Amino acid sequence: MMQESATETISNSSMSQNGMSTLSSSQLEAGSRDGRSSAGDTSSEVSTVELLHLQQQQALQAARQLLLQQPGSGLKSPKSQDKQRPLQVPVSVAMMSPQVITPQQMQQILQQQVLSPQQLQALLQQQQAVMLQQQQQQQQQQQLAAQQLVFQQQLLQMQQLQQQQHLLNMQRQGLLSLPGPAPGQAALPGQTLPQSAGLSPAELQQLWKDVTGGGAHSMEDNGIKHSNSDLSTNNSSSTTSSSNPAKASPPISHHSIANGQSPALNHRRERERERERDSLHEESGGTHPLYGHGVCKWPGCENICEDYGQFLKHLNSEHALDDRSTAQCRVQMQVVQQLEIQLSKERERLQAMMAHLHMRPSEPKSSPKPLNLVSSVTMSKNLPSISPPNLPQTPTTPTAPITPMAAMPQVPSVLGGANVPSMGAMRRRHSDKYSMPLSSEIAPNYEFYKNADVRPPFTYATLIRQAIMDSADMQLTLNEIYSWFTRTFAYFRRNAATWKNAVRHNLSLHKCFVRVENVKGAVWTVDEMEYQKRRSQKITGSPSLVKNLPSSLGYGSALNASLQAALAETSLCHGRLSGSPPTLLHSAHEGLNGSLDHLDTNGHGSPRYSPPVHMPPIHVKEEPLNMDDDDCPMSLVTTANHSPELDDDRELEEGNLSEDLE
DNA sequence: GTGCTCTTAAACAACC
DNA sequence: AGGTTGTTTAAGAGCA
């Protein structure tokens, strides 16, 4: 009989500890790999074809629209532009995001550069195609798995880049009085994109080189410099006029793009910067974002400039405000835009992943994120993979039975291993080993432990002591201890026979727990001296810990590390933690104080821990007295409302609620 | 390999 | 009688 159970325990334990963890981690990796590869393959191929069709259709529509609105009228006159502009801007362009050059600006630029209507149409079609592409991409992305996001974004980025490149080429060709491409052709560049979904920096650079390539000469040769100068003047004047929001068409929004300022402005500011730099003996060119390591960092340029002055000359001569620079800025803008989109999406994905790993995706509540992931080690039989019959009623996971350890046994690297005080086998002696006060340890994770069916990384003794310490009068009946367990930890709402037996066993076993006859009956108290003695024995038994704990301040150092870990975790985690960094700090600080109190007073001081005041206010609801019944898990409402802060409340309002519970 | 700690399981007794 | 409380023993696992 015992043998059987023992072996079962072993097998389950090893299963949960090793097998599951390795399995899950490998699965995670494999899954991510698979997802990536499949995403890169399928999404790029499918979306490209669809996009091409869409782009062509939309481009045709835009062309018709334009032709209808202004049949064959030249756009060379700026005045007529202004009049026509609202009409010339189809929805497609108007849909462009604010980060993109406004249609008016675009048109003005292009028209000043003597673009033909066909070219303008092509340009608009390009823009429209880009927008549709974005929309299409976004829709697809929503449907695809999250792991495809990166590749789609990269694909989109590449497509846009190439479209811009194509657009530039068209522009250049248009300057060479070549007709604009047929609308259908506008989308063609995208066809070649899926091949290069990688978009490495080198590729980007190459793209830039392509964009900035041979067209420069032709442009200059075709007298674009005139328009440059015009644009420059316009631009500088528009700098002042840009303050006027009513002005519909500042020549271009270059001032706000990339590092982009108008050359005139650039020049002026750079001179100022140069003066500052000279005075500060700074390394030449160290501060200009476009100049570094003696090289012009204009995208695709890499012109070697020996000093800053040369760089300025180069900047003003080669990267003046011409159509090329404009287009480059536009491309850069879109690159940035896409990167921002991608960043936001990746961030969302990260948060979703974090949320999933912490609380499981089925967690509907926006309860504060847990800090710690706890993996059960020895609680073999209680592993939630064996879903108990009453589990669906547990408040933790209404939809999905809780399988935290099975699903995600160890995710330390994801969340920053430093913060994980409770991983795997660490669970057992964590709190004792590091003398981390339980309150400060649990406090940030109250919601987590309360709702997640995760075994807390504390020994029974530690938990019992904490339960007693949390009580108003530092003493609890056995039933009250039970209640504290079930109240504080979702994990202990199941398999009551097992852990209750363990609680009783620990109460009897450890000398630090003293049974006191009371009017109410027998209550349990903590002999803090014994507790510390026992703990110090354990600490002295560990050389590393002794080394780290030369004095009672060692507790502080240990706590400090833990605090740092917690803070690091907080910074790693989303901002939805119950304890924001300050509160977490506060909590840990309190824990530190509490720990030191313990040491200084040797248990005779005020061993009660400070309540975690940082917890979100949760209304306490009365709990059934027999809540510790095996078949009576806490109801969802009860548990959701019933927070461990009850103990805090008890401190604030002495015993007004605790007695209701027990 | 050993000792320690912790967990789990179980038997048993006393009490309500 | 049945459940709770409390004690004790035993065995396995993890860790140093």
From TrEMBL:
Biased composition (Polar residues): 1-29
DNA-binding residue intervals: 455-528
PROSITE patterns, per database record: FORK_HEAD_2, FORK_HEAD_3
Region entry Disordered, spans: 1-44, 176-198, 213-292, 584-615, 628-662
Chain intervals with Low complexity compositional bias: 176-191, 229-244
Main location: nucleus
Record domain Fork-head: where: 455-528
Compositionally biased spans, kind Acidic residues: 646-662
A Pfam family assignment: Forkhead
Presence of the UniProt keyword Nucleotide-binding in the record: no
InterPro entries per the UniProt record, alphabetical: FH_FOXP1_P2, Fork_head_dom, FOXP, FOXP-CC, TF_fork_head_CS_2, WH-like_DNA-bd_sf, WH_DNA-bd_sf
Presence of keyword Transcription: yes
Residue stretches of biased makeup (Basic and acidic residues): 218-228, 267-285
GO cellular component: nucleus
Entry keywords, A to Z: DNA-binding, Metal-binding, Nucleus, Repressor, Transcription, Transcription regulation, Zinc, Zinc-finger
One GO molecular-function entry: DNA-binding transcription repressor activity, RNA polymerase II-specific
Compartments in which it is found: Nucleus
Protein name, UniProt field: Forkhead box P2
Organism: Sander lucioperca
Source taxonomy: Eukaryota, Metazoa, Chordata, Craniata, Vertebrata
